[in-house]
Amino acid sequence: MKSKKYIPLVIILTFIFILIYVILAVKPLGKDYKYNPEWKININNPTIKNIVNTENQAYFKLGQAMGYFTDDGDISYFKSFPSKAAISDYYFAPYSTDGKPITFYDNFGNEKGILEAPGFPRFYEDRIYVFEPGGNSFVMADNTGKTLWSVENTIPITAFSSKKKYTAVGYANGIINVINNSNGQIDLSYAPGGSDYPVILGLDISEDGQYIASISGHNRQRFVLSKRENNQPKIIYHDFLSSELYRPTIVQFCKNDTKIIYNYEAHLGIYDINTKENRNFNICNPTNKPLKPFDVKVLSIEETDNLILALGKNEQEYTVFILENTDTLIGQFTFEAETAFIRTLNNDFYIGKDSSISKISLHRE
Prior knowledge:
Strand order of the largest sheet: 1-31-30-29
Strand content: over 45%
Helix content: under 10%
Shape: globular
Radius of gyration: 25 Å
Largest sheet: 4 strands, antiparallel
């Protein structure tokens, strides 16, 4: 009978416990990030301001204009080009397809040299490549334009990645070659396989050359992460994708080579090497509302200390997707433009849109 005295007390304590649990467990839903321009500059007929420190400037390319801007909102160099152009934070070169010698310049606009090999130049930071007509072969050049080494093939190049020590190349026949930049020799050659029709659609290599990530194949298309062990590739993770992609796509190492971001039709994937977790987001339908599916091509990926930002495009609509360090897609915003870019500089975020460049502050509302 004594136990009946404690029943009301037990009920009250149970109620209090449940109430405390609910209060502590319920967390507010994260709100979308909003963006506000801190400054905005127009690149039509800009005023050029000479600078000394190029560490505080970044390159831009919008339509038929290219150059460099600073974190203070100044245009430090501007040049229009009639046909094509290649640019990085170190070099730029306007060029045409008529086979004429190509002169390239540094980020102050000073002539650096003439590219010895004919073709189409590409600059990856301070590394210079020229892709030869036909799309099968390429050369690496020094800072005067002289050819250091060349890689020739009869199979079309379908994916490419450049880091300081290594260059990785993917081909239409499903082969990946890893090249040592110091001598142009192939250190590693392999095929990820796993599909009926082999082709490398996206590719990146870590700075130390130990990890190679790719999207490859048709009919059982997959994301593959390989690790070099005793100078042999070993597949340490793979995932069959939920859709078939029929275009080149982006695969990129981020966060000191601990994460890989990749894009396939209507999706953004992120793999964490440390946790071995792979997450996928439907970037066309993040709210799970009934929408007509469409492809979003991710053009570039930038990062700050806390965020990873991806710029996607569908027709004339651009979308910036925002991911936190928790590998969570936390926000996005969309705008229309003919041409656009995103950049990060000194941990700040910038958007280029047609004829303007804006420094953006990101915050939740």
